[in-house]
Amino acid sequence: MEQLNFIRQLPKVELHLHIEGSLEPEMMFELAKRNQIPLPFQSPEEVRAAYQFSNLQSFLDIYYQGAQVLIHEQDFYDLTWAYLLRCQQDNVIHTEIFFDPQTHTDRGIAFSTVVNGITKALSDAESQLGITSQLIMCFLRHLDEQAAFETLEQALPYKDKIIAVGLDSSEQGHPPEKFQRVFEKARQEGFLTVAHAGEEGSSENIRNAMSLLHVARVDHGVRCVDDPLLVEKLAELQMPLTVCPLSNLKLKVFDTMDQHNICELLEKGLCVTINSDDPAYFGGYMNDNFIAVAQSHSLGSASLAQFSLNAVEASFVDEESKAKMRNRILAHLEHSLS
Ligand code: HPA
Ligand code: ZN
């Protein structure tokens, strides 16, 4: 089977996707009009042209601005539904998505508006598209501990809808230890934990996310290579890393895709996965990320399928669901070889 078709048809699991980062410029314009929010751009093309980032912060500034067009429950539904239709196109069979409640509650949008809009779309996707999902609530790490505690409090009535808490936004200057106590509380309340670490920040942040926040996965984690003992430990523990190749390129974590270390980490036996992060801003959904890695590193089918199998192992679903997904991936691999 030709490689592009192999990738397109490969069943995939996405574990690192910020729903606010799936807001395409066309929808940004549509919602701005619907909600009468002024935009500093004249057209979707002009918005796309502004997506030239020099680092994480330069992206975050424009990303938080974009999210301001989201006001009503229907807006959050439409945003999530549009992403799920992209999942269907890319053969994503299961997705675990992040949302940033503080980006919205700080503008006076109710927590319930955000969660209800997102979860209605997730539920419709399961019944209408056969795509399963989980929801992860992220704390914005540039805000203080108290604000994270208040957000956690707001999430308690939605425990059955939110599987885990995470940590995103500016990594530099906001290390995992700042949120140790709030993560402790979240774990007591029954949430799993994840955290962005070692994207722009140091490998020490990865170590601390594991030892202090007890994360079940590390988001990004690519800076682990600065600490060979940590790399060994990640392999031994099979600690999943949710790597986002096109994001890393756009935010200049790596200069070129050939220099990206994802294949080196795969060869070392780490549980690395491929994800899209903020696809509307970084120029690609799941298939595009797989294709970019495959083409720059001349990867074969077995390695590509391994990324998908790793994501199944790393997902927050029961063993029976994992077995079903694993079998679908293995069937695709076998079919492609025959
Ligand atoms: N890193 C940190 N914060 C984020 C990201 C990211 O890649 N995407 C959205 N918020
Ligand atoms: Zn991210």
Order of helices and strands: HEHHHHEHHEHEHEHEHEHHEHHHH
Unreliable segments (pLDDT under 50, ≥5 consecutive)?
Answer: none
**Fourth-tier CATH superfamily name:** Metal-dependent hydrolases
Approximately how much beta-strand content do the residues carry? 5-15%
Supply the number of helical segments: 17
What oligomeric state do the depicted chains represent? Answer: single chain
Q: CATH architecture, please?
A: Alpha-Beta Barrel
Overall average pLDDT? 97
Structural class: alpha/beta
Broad shape: globular
The strand count comes to 8
**CATH fold descriptor:** TIM Barrel
**CATH top level class name:** Alpha Beta
Task: Summarize the biggest pleated sheet.
Answer: 8 strands, parallel
Describe the strand arrangement of the main beta sheet, using strand numbers: 1-2-3-4-5-6-7-8
User: Measured on Cα atoms, how large is the radius of gyration?
Assistant: 19 Å
Percent of residues in helices comes to 40-55%
Could you tell me how far the N terminus lies from the C terminus, measured between alpha carbons in angstroms?
A: 9 Å
Overall number of domains: 1
Tell me which ligands are bound.
hypoxanthine, zinc ion
Active site: 199
Function: Catalyzes the hydrolytic deamination of adenine to hypoxanthine. Plays an important role in the purine salvage pathway and in nitrogen catabolism.
Organism: Vibrio paucivorans
GO molecular function, one term: adenine deaminase activity
